[in-house]
Amino acid sequence: MSQDLWNAVDAFVGDTLVGQDAVLEAALARSSAAGLPAISVSPPQGKLLHLLARAIKARRILELGTLGGYSTIWLARALGPGGRVVTLEVDPAHAAVARENLRHAGVARRVDVRVGDALDTLATLAAEGGRPFDFVFIDADKPRIPDYFERSLALCRPGSVLIVDNVVREGQLADPSSDDANVHGVRRFHVMLTRDERVSATTIQTVGLKGYDGFTIAVVN
Fold it and tell me: Could you give the residue ranges of the DSSP H alpha helices within 78-202?
């Protein structure tokens, strides 16, 4: 098994089941030209988010970590009429690129891009009230994942689905001796889930264009 093989499989899946998409490819190109890190979800992962959101007929979607808006476009396309994505980004430069990509994708009217520290923005969303979120995608800094999840969960309803990305960390999730703050964050998150009766959750390991990693999926009880 090798990274080359994983890349080849992802390329095959992209060519057959995901398909070529000029809008999404242009979004990645603009993000790269603007100097954003190449850490967006892969095309198969983007379509997985899209399909999961469609499967539960999500009307309100929350995303933590907009970056250049690649995953945001996938999520916005999953919405039915009147649906809305609220996406949180700490970096104003990243948010500007995302807004441009969303505009070119024709989904800008469905997306509310909020700039600032995610914990502060989540507190603002809680204060605003409004309908609960049906679907949450958390792809932000890992040391604070437990806090992001806790705040996001408070904005959900029974049956809502929450996805947390990049939690396996090339297998370091299973290493209690790791001194990596990212690993500490995702390990603390898993321990937290074992004690939280509000959700049912599991973690799936993945390989592909993004290497060896994985995601947690949780459903609100």
Answer: 92-105, 118-128, 145-153, 181-194
